Amino acid sequence: MPEVKLVDVTKRFGDVHALRGVSLTVKDGEYVCILGPSGCGKSTLLRIIAGLLQPDSGSIYIDGRDVTYKPPEERQVGFVFQNIALFPHMDSWSNVTYGPVVKCMDRDTAYKAVRELMVILNIAKYSGLYPYELSGGIAQMIAIVRALATGAKLLLLDEPLGALDPRVRVNLKYELRRMVKDLNLTAIHVTHNQEEALTVADRIVVMRSGIVEGFDTPENLYWRPKNLFIADFIGKVNIMRGVISRVIGEKVLISLTNGQLVELHAEGFSEGDSVVLAIRPENFEFSSDDVMQDISLTGVVARVRFMGEYYRYDVRTEAGETIIVNYPVGGDVKKLGEKVRIWFNPETVLIYPYPEKGIEKELMVEI
Amino acid sequence: MQNIWKILRITILASTFLTFTILVLFPTIFLASFPLIYIDDIRYEVFENPLIGSENLRLIIEVLTFSFKLSASTVLVDILLGIPLAFILARGNFPGKLLLETLVTLPLVMPTSGFGFASLLTWTTVSGVGKWFGLSRGILSITSNLPFIDVPIIIFIVHVSLTLPYIVRTVQAKLVEVDIVYEDASRTLGATSLTTFRKILMPELLPAIFSGSVLAFARSLGETGATIIVAGVRLTAAVAVVKWEFEFKLGAAAFLGLILVLITWLIILPAELFLTSAKGGIVKPPSLISGTIVERALIKLEAKFSKRIFKNILHGVCVALLLVLVIVPIVVVVESVFSYMFKDPYTGKTEGSVIYQLFGPANYLPIMLRSTAVSFASAFTSTYISVFLSIPLVYIIDRYRVGRILRALLKVPLVIPSSALGLSVLLFWGPKFLGLLTPSIWLIILTQIVFSVPVIVETTMAVYEGSNIKLYEDAAKTLGANPYHVVEKISLPILKEGIITGAILSFTHSLGETGAAMIVMGADIPISVLVVNMVESLAIPAALFTSAYLIIISTIMIVVFRIVSGRRRI
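Predict the joint structure of the above. Result:
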C-alpha cells in the first residue's frame, strides 16, 4: 500500500530555487492536496514524485522503497495532467489500455478491470472515440482511467480540473474524491484553487517559493492557521496592528492602532510586543446599538459587492483602514456611504507576532 | 483617390506576375518542351545513333540506377543519424547546443565544391586523415565501395554530410512543436523511453521524417558540385547532365535532365499530397502488432536498450560522426593550406606551393579574384531582384486563387537537380530557343533568380502565415492609413525577418551553387566552379587555397546569419 515520503528534496532550475528542502509524508489512503500560488514549486514536487524530474538532492520513498533514481516507468504511479494529454492518434480504448499493453500485463485481467472502471464512471460508451471528439470533462475521466489502468495505487493529479469549465469542474472534483476512496488509492492533487483543495482534501500542503508553509487538515488550516501567510492565503483576512499593553494570565490586553483596547486569549506574548490581528470577513457583524462598545469600530461603507449568498462590504474606518465584511443575504442591505458600526467576537481573532520583514513581505506569494 | 490606389495595385501585381512568368516559370518548365521540339535530336543521340546505337540509353539507365542506389542509401543513413541528432537539438539543453546546431546547418550554406574537395583530401589522400594514422595514403581509396550496393564510400560520405541537415531540421522543428506531455504521460503509464518513442512520437514524427527524406533524396539526386569532384570515373545522373552538355551531347543531356525532373516530381507530388491531407489532422498509423506476442517481445527488447547508457552512447556516436564528417574536412583543408604554403610538403618543390600557384606563372590569383567578383556580383544581383519579385508574390499567393498553383510551381526549382535547371534556363534563353543570351554572367544571374525567388517566397510566407498580419493591416486602415502607409509601416516591418532570412539563404545558395553555373557560365567562371576546374587540372595547392577561402566565407556568412536572425532556425 502506497505511502509517499519525501526527505529534504531540493530542485533548482538555473537561478530559480523550485524546491528548498521539502520533507513530508503522505499516509496510505490519504487524499492530499498541494496548494500554492503559481511558481511555488508544487508541480515540480509532483513531477519529482512521478520521476519525470530528478531532484538535485534528497530522497523519495514510495511504499518504503527508495525510488529517487528510478525512471517513471518503474514507479507504479498514475499521473493525470492538466491539459489531459490523451494520445491524439489513439481512440479512448487504445488510450486506456496503453499502460497494460506497454507493461505486457495479462490482457484479459487488465482489460476487464479497465472496462469495469469505465462502466462505473459511465464513460464506456466513449471507447471508440478519438480525443478530439470528446468534451474536456469526459476526456479527463478517460485520462484518469488510463492512469489507473495499470493498477497504480498512487494517483498523482497535476491541476486535473484546471482545463475544464466551472460546472464540469465541480462534478468531477467530488467524483475524483469518491473514486480515490472507493478504490483505496492514495492521491496527491496539485492545485492553486483553495476552494478545490478545501473541499476534497484530507490534508493540505501549503507551499510558497519552494517551501512547505503548512501541512494540516482543511479545518485546522482555516481556523487555526499557524502563520499569517496561511491565514491570508486560505480564505481572506482583515489585518490590524496592535501592541500588547498588558498580560493577564492566559489573556492579553492589546491596544490597537486606533487606541482601542481588546482583550484576547493568547499565550507566549509579553508586554510591549508588536502583534498582528487577523479577522476573517465573515466574523464581523454590524451593530446598531452600543453593545460591546470596547471592540467595535465605526466607519463608512465604501463599496458594496453582491456575491450570491452574501454581500461583501468594504468599510473605511475612522483610522483610515479598510475592513472587508461578509454579511449574509437576508439582513438589511447597507448603502454606499452609510455610516456603520462593526464589531467582532474576540474568540474568532487570530493573533500573530508582528512579522520581522513587515506584513506586506509576509503575505507576498513569492519571496 | 481610391481609383489611383486600385490602378497602382493592379499595375504592380500584373507586372510582378508577368516578370515572374518570364524569369522563373518559363525557364523552369522549358525543359519539358524540349523532347517535343527536338524529338529528332533525342532519337539520334539516345536511341538510334548510327555509330553507337542505343549506347547512350544504356548509359542513361546506368547512371540513373547508380544515382538511385546512392540517394536511397544516403537517405537511409540520414534518417538513422538525423533522428537522434534532431532529438539532441530539440530536447537537450547543454552548453554548445547552438554550436552543434550551426554545425548541422553548415553544409547547407557551404559551397559544395569546396566541401567536396575538402572531403576528398581528407579521406582519400595522404594529406588527410591517413597521415594522422601514420599511413602513406588516404584511409579510403576513391574506388573503395560500400558492400552490396557498389557505391563509392567517398561519394556516399559527402552526400550524407550534405543532405543530413534536411532530415535533422525538419524532424527537430516537429519535435519542438510536439508537447513533451505525451512522452511524460507514456512514461508514467509504464512505457520505457524506446517504447514511448515508437508508440507515441513516431506517429507524430512520420510526416516530418517523410518530408525531410524527400528533400534529402531530391538534394542527393541533384547534387553536382561536390559529386563531380569526388566521383572519379563514376557518374551520377546530375553530373552526367553537366558532362554531356560539355561534350555537346545536348540531346542526351536534356533527355536525362528531363527524366530526372520527372522522377523528382513523381516523388515530391505524392509526398506533397500526403502531407497536405494529413496537415492539421492526425496521422493514425495502423497498429498491426499492438498487443501481440511480437510486440511483447519488442517491448522487452526496448526495455533492455532504454537504459541511459545506451542513449548516451547513441547520442555520442551521432555527434561524433557529425563532427568527423563536417569538421575534420574543414580542419584538414585549413591545415593543408599552411603546409602547402611555401613548398609541396612531400616533394619539397616550390612549384607545388600555394604561393607559387597564386603568384607564379600559373597566376591563379587574378583568376581567383575575377571569379570571386563574378560570384559576388551575380549572387548579389540575383538576390536583389528576387527580393523585389518575391514580396508582391507573397501577396498574390495569399490573396488570389491562382496563388496555390503558383506556390506548388515554386517548389519545382527548389527540388529539381540544379544541372537540369541550368540546362533548362540555357535552352530557354540561349540560341536554341529565344537566342537572347549566350552563356555568361547574365545567364548565371537569370538561373540564380529561378531558385532564389522560391527560397525568399517560402521564408517570407512562413512569417506571413504565423503573424496575423491582416489584423494589423486592418487596424492601420481603421486608423486612417492609406495603402502605401500600410505596406511601408505595417506589412514590411512585420515581414522583415522572413525577407532577410530568405535573402541571406538565397545569397549563400547562389554563391555556392555549382551544377547549374557550370552549364550557363560561359567564360565567367564563378568561384564554386573554379574549385572544380582547379581540381580537374590538378592545381591542388590552388584548389586548397580556394576551398579554404570558400569555407571561411561561408562560415562568416552563417555567423552573420545567426546575428541577423537571432535564434530563429533557418
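Residues 275 and 354 of chain A are 4 Å apart (CA to CA).
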